[in-house]
Amino acid sequence: MQLKKESPSVPARLVNTGLITAAGRDTADCLKSLISGTPGISFARHLNSARRDEFPVGEVKYSNTELAEIAGVPAHWPRTALLSAVAVREVLSPFSGKLEGWRTGFFSANTVGGMDLTEQFYPQFLADNAGGDISRVKAHECGAVTELVAGHFGITGFVTTISTACSSSANSIMMAAQMIRAGILDIAVAGGADALSRFTLNGFNSLMILDREPCRPFDATRKGLNLGEGAGYVLLMSDSAAAATGAQTICTLSGYANANDAYHQTASSPDGKGNVLAMQQALQQAGLSPEAISYINLHGTGTANNDSSEGRAVSAVFGDRIPYASSTKAFTGHTLGAAGGVEAVFSALSIREQIVFPNLRWQNRMEEVDWEPATELVPNADIRHVLSNSFGFGGNCSSLIFSKQDS
Amino acid sequence: MNIYINGTGFIFPSGISTEPSMDLSGNTGHRYVSEPDYTGLIPPMQLRRMSKAIRMGVVAARACLTDNGQTAPDAISAGTAMGCLQDTEQFLKQLTLQQEQAVAPTAFIQSTHNTVAGQIALLLGCNGHNLTYVHRGHSFEHALINTALYLRERPEASVLAGGIDELTGSSLKLMQRAGVYESENHPGALAGEGAAFFLVRSQAQRRGALRISAIETFRAGTEKDAVSQTAAFLNRHPEAASPELLWTGINEQQPEITDGYSGIRSALFQSHALRGFKQFSGEYPTAVAIALGLLSRASASAIWPDEVFGTAGRPVNRITLINRYLDYYSCMYLESATNP
After folding, report:
1. Which residues 44-73 of A have a C-beta within 8 angstroms of B?
2. How distant, in Å, are the alpha carbons of A12, A41, A91, A149, B45 from that of A242?
3. String of b and e for A129-159 (b: at least 16 CB within 10 Å)?
4. B156: burial class by Cβ within 10 Å (0-12, 13-18, 19+)?
5. Contact B288, B141 (CB under 8 A)
6. Is A30 a catalytic residue?
7. Tell me, what DSSP letter sits at residue A166?
């Protein structure tokens, strides 16, 4: 690959979305739920876990067989791959047959890979290391899940997988945008997927950050997060690819940044240093001052630690001019590796529909923060630039900025 | 745009970059790293909780920064196909044996794939860009590509880029069952593990910095396809067609296994011998990082041991590096920069 230093740096155009979450089976369905204030949080019906009646989750309302049917892929795939395929199918479908000859990339992210199958295989392997059906762990690796989906949709250009915990798919979108901006690629499918598993449900429970009730992001009395699952992808194009394929631009990806909190493996620093850096650097890249942001889609998991740090960080960056801000995780739960992609789609919808989504189940203002999230749907809002935050374990902080064209 | 390796640190089955023992006599079979004394490298309280993948990554990162003379990079970019296997298995074991009751969090926290890069950032106090690639046999190469993209936007910065993968009893067993690694009943590759980090900039900082001017990754299911894609790479980068050294991912202790390489050599590099590096690293998804470490070290020291490179001790300035892991291929073209 030859990186051209002098090529023009034009932001990538976001021309389509693909989405599946607990709140809906595709972009339109999820949008309906967001507008009507209908969350997808409930007790799991498909996940097999001793804890499934203890913790409400944002589970996608389809079995693996049903997902496979929707996507047109084999049902024996890991659930992460099935979710990914459903959303990728949606994001590509208006362009099927039109992408020949363009330099295309697939940037996917996940954290669990094929763990839903691995955790079924493992007990037999533990008892006897010659035991268990080895085909179940063929797609264990995060990258294997990506390759299943890329192979099915015939994407053979640049294919990669990023895994940085809860910021994973924000980072895959960032890399895709960088490569289009650098003139290396014309078209990219970027985002991520993650499925619920016993591994993650128990993992998060061991950290004692799960709420036994539907989560309440940014509320002073919040008790933790609800795990979720799903997939969110955006289709990014260069100017020339968009013009040639007739794709309509929903918004551009005008800024992106990744920074590291370097404070603790799982907790954010109290003043959210990494969060501040990510937001500031994304604004700098987009050439925007904080006042230009119309809406912040918060990471807002509902944990004591995240919301407190993120709240302080937003105050530090925006001063006393806080834009509309809400966490959509009250609708979908925390979709881990998919969160950045899912919320990128919500950010694009915010621009397309000129709307702010409500932060559900909020009642009490946090002491450490002197602003409140938007608790009601705001239609006809003047949305020009949306900032989307995704902050993950390992201090990994990502911020993306989406801009209405001609803003 | 070129990127320059201005420092390296690595740990692999033949030792550690500061003291590698390239003597392979008596080495047979699958190879594990022999871990150094970590005193002074990793604080004991932290060491206690670190699994092997993390220890390897941290020690390689520290050795790299010592080699380069820097205290902290601006950004970190890591590649790992398997992540922290030991921790993943540890957590799965707990879940299974305790039937999802009272499981401890440590193994879960450390099982996330970006733990190595995150831990390094913590230890160095590095607040910069920090990404982890988990794309099978391309994980390390993609971390390098990400590094190049980052440096394109920030030409003055430095990036600590690396590749890490560990071998465990379970991963070895599963890969044997899958027919990838050699077992009693089945021929296959000899396994390995390791970690390598590089201090990368958009300029050479020192004499003997290693310049990477081309890096491409592709998949090829057949030898024919591998040849045609490599030919396409050479078309785009003609200087890579006639290097002084063609180095590949063959294991010279398994000379009968040249699948995926011999076709490329006979079609595109007839005047070159088929030399390789995996007798030093073993086979694993990010092993090519060890090759880059050995090349970088040789370039910086101007010492090119014949038992490693086969050039009778003669310095090498132009190298084409071709690696294969399963059907994941990468091609790189490297030059030893003479002057900073």
Report:
1. 49-51
2. 10, 37, 14, 23, 54
3. eeebeeebbebbbbbbbbbbbbebbebebbb
4. exposed
5. yes
6. no
7. B
pLDDT in tens, chain A (407 residues): 555 544 457 899 999 999 999 999 999 999 999 999 999 999 999 999 999 999 999 999 999 999 999 999 999 999 999 999 999 999 999 998 888 899 999 999 999 999 999 999 999 999 999 999 999 999 999 999 999 999 999 998 999 999 999 999 999 999 999 999 999 999 999 999 999 999 999 999 999 999 999 999 999 999 999 999 999 999 999 999 999 999 999 999 999 999 999 998 889 999 999 999 999 999 999 999 999 999 999 999 999 999 999 999 999 999 999 999 999 999 999 999 999 999 999 999 999 999 999 999 999 999 999 999 999 999 999 999 999 999 998 899 999 999 999 76
Chain B interface disruption, residue of A121, A133, A136, A163, most B CBs within 10 A = A163
Burial class of residue B313 in the structure, from the number of CB atoms within 10 Å of its CB (0-12 exposed, 13-18 middle, 19+ buried): exposed
Whole-number CA gyration radius for chain B: 19
Across-strand partners of A20? A231
Rama region for B145: left / alpha / beta (φ>0; ψ in -120 to 50; rest):
alpha
Residue A196's alpha-carbon distances to A52, A336, A368, B174, B261, in angstroms, are 11, 9, 32, 24, 41
Q: Catalytic residue among A166, A215, A251, A397, which?
A: A166
> Rounded to whole angstroms, how far apart are CA atoms A347 and A340?
10
ipTM (interface pTM):
0.96
In this complex, the residue of B95, B125, B133 whose CB is nearest that of residue A198 is: B95
Q: Does A120 touch chain B (CB under 8 A)?
A: no
Choose the mutation target among B129, B225, B329 for the interface with A, i.e. most A CBs under 10 Å.
B129
Contacts of B49 in chain A (CB under 8 A): none
| H and E: helices and strands count for chain A | 12, 10
